[in-house]
Amino acid sequence: MAKTEDISFGYLLSDVTLLFRKHFDRRAVKFGLTRAQWRATKVLYHREGLRQTELAEFLEMEPIAVGRVIDRLQAAGFVERRPDPKDRRAWRLYVTEQARVIVGDMELIARELRKDATRGIGHDELQHALAVIGRIKDNLQALEQGDGTP
User: Carries keyword DNA-binding (predicted)?
Assistant: First the structure.
């Protein structure tokens, strides 16, 4: 009898992620943003004034990696750092007008890619698949917390 743990799925998830990134980057190249930069811009668009550490938590990335993304976005004119009025050592992050102009176009690119990627897959079918993947993520995050049991 086959067991759940005998089904290999890690490579498939990795392949899907890599292909999604590749196709997104191809479509978004005209805006000069990578997928990571787009994610950061989108979060800041909806939650302006975050600190870099808070943005890192939203993106589930290390703060130093987010710092590099923000440096590139700032150099490209999409994000600005402003002093935190409550903490002289900290900076708050805001999108610029240049970023605001492209957010709708970038969201359209993401929506169209999701549409292409889910062709032939029903809504309920996708919801179920995402719920299972979410539970796998939860189990793996529990392992990260050190208790060893999901």
Answer: yes
Domain range enclosing 113: 31-144
Residue 112 lies in a domain: yes
* In a domain? residue 4: no
- Chain segment 25-74, per-residue pLDDT in tens: 898 888 888 888 989 999 999 999 999 999 999 999 999 999 999 999 99
Residues in the chain, how many? 150
User: Which tokens is 60 given?
Assistant: 């589930």
Residue 150 is assigned to a structural domain of this protein: no
Burial category of 106 from C-beta neighbours within 10 Å (exposed 0-12, middle 13-18, buried 19 and up): buried
- The total of other beta-carbon atoms located within 10 Å of residue 105's CB is 12
State how far the Cα of 106 lies from the Cα of 14, in Å rounded to an integer: 23
What's the CA gap between 15 and 68, in Å, rounded?
Answer: 25
DSSP secondary structure code for residue 20 in this structure: H
Domain tally, the chain? 1
The verdict on residue 136 lying in a domain is: yes
